[in-house]
Amino acid sequence: MEQRPKLRGIPDEKILEARRLSDGKWVFKISNRKGPGDFRVSVFYPETQTRLTPSYAHFAIDLYGKLCRNENAALFILQGIEEIYSGASGATDVLSKLNKSNSLIQIGNLPGYSVEYTFHVLEFIFMQEEVTWERDFVQLRKPLPQLRKMLVRKGFLTNDEAKSKGSAIAMHLLRRVVRDKIHPVAAMREVLLRI
After folding, report:
1. Crossing angle (nearest 10°) for helices 71-86 and 91-100
2. 119 - beta bridge partners?
3. Hey, is 150 helix, strand or coil?
4. What are phi and psi of 43, to 5 degrees?
């Protein structure tokens, strides 16, 4: 097994988890200082020795490209993302199921991010959103933000999902792009992302 690369400026004790992808990229959970359990997601590209901090907006754009190429495949990927989001399975389990059913071959040739990258990075981003939601809203007993109330009123989120899932906004964005075929820019504006 290949040894995890050293990240410049990041002490080893700050690395909470590292996953090596089949293409050689590494996905990291790196301890952050905003509170207990807080972390950031970082992807290391060994060929260029660079790091990227991914966001769910990147995946909205990527999934739109996949949707334009093959609608059924994009919906299939969204189904896998939903499974990860719900907590029913982790990225590794979803990829294993897809591999066993030979579905990965059908969706693996789409442009943009690999399915493996998408599932592993989004799994970490969803975890990160849960930590932030718990810290910033649940523990402080803050009222539900207006955006979430609006998404419940419009039927995009259930009341329970809006209150309990930190990653509900991220998942909503991805659903709107793939399932509802909304352009990523319009979908990002809808969830008040600064673009």
Report:
1. 140
2. none
3. helix
4. -115, 130
C-beta neighbour count of 107 within 10 angstroms: 19
Q: Is 1 helix (H, G, I), strand (E, B) or coil?
A: coil
Q: Which of 154, 133, 131, 129 is nearest to 142 (CA)?
A: 133
Instruction: Please report the pLDDT score of residue 190 as a whole number.
Output: 94
> Stretch 57-68: mean pLDDT, rounded?
97
Distance in Å from the first CA to the final CA of the chain: 40
User: Please, is 8 exposed, middle or buried when counting C-beta atoms within 10 Å of its C-beta (0-12, 13-18, 19+)?
Assistant: exposed
Total count of residues recorded for the chain: 195
Q: Which of 158, 100, 87 is nearest to 129 (CA)?
A: 87
> For the chain, what is the radius of gyration of the CA atoms?
17
CA distance 55 to 24: 20
Which 3 state secondary structure label does DSSP give 37? coil
pLDDT at 1: 55
Share of the chain above pLDDT 70, in %: 99
